[in-house]
Design a protein that fits this description.
Strand content: under 5%
Structural class: mainly alpha
Number of helices: 6
Shape: elongated
Number of strands: 0
Oligomer: single chain
Mean pLDDT: 94
Largest sheet: none
Length: about 140
């Protein structure tokens, strides 16, 4: 058996890390869009956050949905070492970049969600792009099939 067929340990660790991160994103997605009052209260979100996600524009909702579900699907597909993960991770990263650019520029995201959540989301954007570049690196090295 050649080394090129072995799955590197870091692939498993990275995939599991991102599955964990994006699983919480899926949970948050449904709680925020379901307008779960207990969830909003547990996060100390005020009326401004509730209004922000009420009647969320369809275009932004599409970008958010692509990002959330694309990210979790890409993380799971990485475990199967499929080359499709590169494209799905790229689509997810682009949708997140567009979502954040639009919401920071036109929906006052920083003011509504506050600096901590805004910086956290920017951090997620950075690691989402890092995940894409990691997947692309694995594809170039022949780790993905």
């Amino acid at each position: 058996m050649s080394n090129s067929n072995k799955t590197p340990l870091h692939l498993w660790l990275i995939a599991l890390f991102f599955i964990f991160i994006y699983s919480y994103g899926v949970y948050d997605y449904f709680m925020m869009l379901g307008h779960d009052a207990d969830y909003y209260n547990s996060k100390n979100y005020g009326e401004a956050v509730h209004k922000y996600f009420t009647n969320y524009p369809i275009g932004l909702l599409v970008l958010w949905t692509i990002n959330i579900f694309g990210s979790i699907i890409a993380s799971i597909l990485l475990l199967f070492r499929t080359r499709w993960v590169v494209w799905i991770a790229l689509i997810s990263a682009i949708s997140m970049l567009l979502l954040e650019a639009i919401t920071f520029a036109f929906k006052n995201r920083w003011e509504v969600l506050g600096p901590f959540i805004s910086m956290f989301d920017i951090g997620l954007l950075i690691i989402t792009w890092a995940f894409f570049f990691y997947c692309r690196y694995l594809a170039k090295r022949g780790v993905l099939k």
